[in-house]
User: Fold this.
Amino acid sequence: MIVKHKISVKIGLTMLMTLILLPLSGCGGRSDIGEPRDNIAAAEEVYTIGVNAYLWRAALDTLSFMPMLSADHEGGAILTDWKVNPANANERTKVDVYIVGKELRADALNITVHREALRDGNWISIEPRPDAATQINTAIVIQARLLRRDNAPLTSR
Assistant:
């Protein structure tokens, strides 16, 4: 009887400790998206590949829906091929991204958006949509910052 009592006490204590410690298992992890962190120790400039690695990866991720024509990590150039608009087969777009700075900043990117329309069997150059380059730039920088945040080592406070 004493053995059964000791076993049930051990099981009870184990269950109690599990219930106490389980909610604490999520503490100390990464912060949510957009929440500022004061313990980011990652370098602003990461350029072992020739350009800022966060901007490079973010640009490739952001433009992954477009066919790639060329990507030069040493020079920081990403050129997409033409992508036909799925909503309008008479319109196509391509994007050129040049990473010109080594810091993770919006002005470290030069983005050109090309747009053409099919008229009488010929592709004619037309103006890109308003703010298209700015929207792509913003998407790349946000993605790069998230990559940097997720790669930053956790430091003790």
